[in-house]
Write a structure and sequence with these properties.
- The protein is an alpha/beta fold.
- The chain has ten helices and six strands; from the N terminus they run αβαββαααβαβαααβα.
- The protein has helices spanning about 1-25, 45-50, 90-95, 110-115, 115-130, 150-155, 185-200, 205-210, 215-220, 255-275; strands at about 25-35, 55-60, 70-75, 135-140, 160-165, 225-230.
- The chain has a six-stranded mixed beta sheet with strand order 2-3-1-6-4-5, sandwiched between helices.
- β4, α6 (about 150-155) and β5 (about 160-165) form a beta-alpha-beta unit.
- α5 packs across α6.
Length: about 280
Amino acid sequence: MMLKDGWVMKKRKWVALVDEAQKERMVDFSIENPAASKLKMLPVIEELLKNPIVKRKTTSYCHYGAPFRKNTAFITSLPFDPPKPCPSMPCRSLASGGEHLEGVQGQKLQAKYSIPRDLVQELVTAFMRKYPQAKRFLIIDCFSGFGSIKNAVESMKPSRPVCVFSNDKVARKGVDITLDMSSDVNLHLLFPFAVLSTYGDNEQERELITKSESVFEYLKKTSTAVLFHASIPCQTYSTASGSCHRASGSAEPLSPTAQRHDRITEHICGWIQANVLAI
C-alpha cells in the first residue's frame, strides 16, 4: 500500500509540475494519424504517451459531416475530447437509421487526406480555452497537405487573433515554407522561423524579438500561445500498405521510405519532449 500511495503521490507531483510548466510556456502539440496506423507502435510515440498530460483521442470523420467513416487519432497535450469513433458512438447518419453514403476507398486525395473543418475548429477551440491569459495564438502546421488547418482557421471568427504558419514539402497554395522534416536541422529551424515570419513584420516587434534571449522568451513577453501540429505522413504506417513497408504485426521498417518516416517521427517527438513537455 505504501508503494502504491508513494507512486500516486509521485505521479500527482509530476502532473502538477508539467501543468505548471505548460502554463508558463504556453506551447502545445498535436500529432494526427489514422487510428489504425502503426505509428502508435513506435517507441518514441509510446514514450510520449507516458507523460500524464499527453492523451491519444480517436474519432471519425463522419461525426463532422463527411459522407464516409474514416477513423483518425490525435496524440496531444491539449484537453481535447472529440466524439468516440463511429459506430461505437454512432454518427448522426447511423443514429437516425441511415448509413454512410460513401466509403473511404475511391475518395479523391483531397477529401481522403483533409481533416474536416469542424474537427480542426474543435481542436483550435480546445487550444484557445486552455490559455485564457493568451493575447494571441500561432499554429505551426508541420505538414499542411491540402491546407485543412489554415482553411478551417480562416473560416473561424475567434475572439482573439489566431495565425497559421504552414510548412509542406510540396509548394501548394497557402504553404509558407517548404522544409523537409526528415532533416533534424529543418525541424529546429521551423519553430523560430514561423514565429519571426508571423510577427516580425513591424519595427516594434522586431526590436522585441532582438532584445529577447530566445524565441520562447519573446512568446512569453507577448503572451503568445503556440500549437505545433503534425499530420505525420501515413503512407508507411497505414495497415493498407500491408507488409510492403513494415513487418506484419509490427512497426519494424522494411523500406527506405518507412525508415525516412521513422526519422521524421523521431525528430518531431524529440523536439516535443525538449520544448513542450520538459519540466
